[in-house]
Amino acid sequence: MPQIMEALRIGEILDLNETIAADLFNGHDHPWEVLPLIKDYIIEKGKSLDPALYEERGENIWIARDAKVYESAFIGGPCIIGRGTEVRHCAFIRGSAIVGDHCVVGNSVELKNVVIFNCVEVPHYNYVGDSVLGFHAHMGAGSITSNVKADRKNVVIKAGDLEIETGLRKIGAILGDHAEIGCNTVLNPGTVVGRHSNIYPVTCVRGFVPGNSILKNDLTLVSKAPDKE
Length: 229
Description:
Layout: H1 2-7, H2 10-13, H3 38-47, E1 54-58, E2 61-64, E3 68-69, E4 74-75, E5 79-81, E6 86-87, E7 92-93, E8 97-99, E9 104-107, E10 110-116, E11 121-124, E12 127-133, E13 138-139, E14 144-145, E15 156-159, E16 162-165, E17 173-175, E18 180-181, E19 186-187, E20 191-193, E21 198-199, E22 204-205, E23 208-209, E24 213-215, E25 221-223
Parallel strand pairs: 2-5, 3-6, 4-7, 5-8, 6-9, 7-10, 8-10, 9-11, 10-12, 12-17, 13-18, 14-19, 17-20, 18-21, 19-22, 20-23, 21-24
Antiparallel strand pairs: 1-2, 15-16, 24-25
């Protein structure tokens, strides 16, 4: 049990050097603990951003001056869009969203109450709510986070025989750095995917997927082969 708890800690899943919101995670053990704090954090963080690099384009909406935002995209506050990021046609950012540098928020993608680290791609018809996406995470076309249980009860993080009570009714997914999510996959409430893990397309995922693993459609979990020198 202690080993699993350690694997779920922020430092084991996320590189805090790859987000403008590193201090949001200070004093917390697990990534989902910051979800209720995102809105207020953005409002305060935005006030400290360099106006030479970020333009305030509405109430509590800060967008990097070199970001590319298509006219058909909707961006609600509070929100921070990072440098070099592209927000494509008909994206719907509902608010309480931090989108890092050099990210892609694609066509018809919906974001709500999220921290998206640098170089993340959510490029095609994705829904990401109440979630944290680590550095260079990628969600394939049509993959989504489900953030509310069918019975509307609080989300429990499940890892093996361990069940962690979160006290939160809404949690989508926590994706570790370089996580790869296959097309049309559903990440059920409270899913945690470790660093460098891959999820096969069209998979229904629940619970904890350890780092450096591959989760297949039949939920078989295999370890990745070590990189060759």
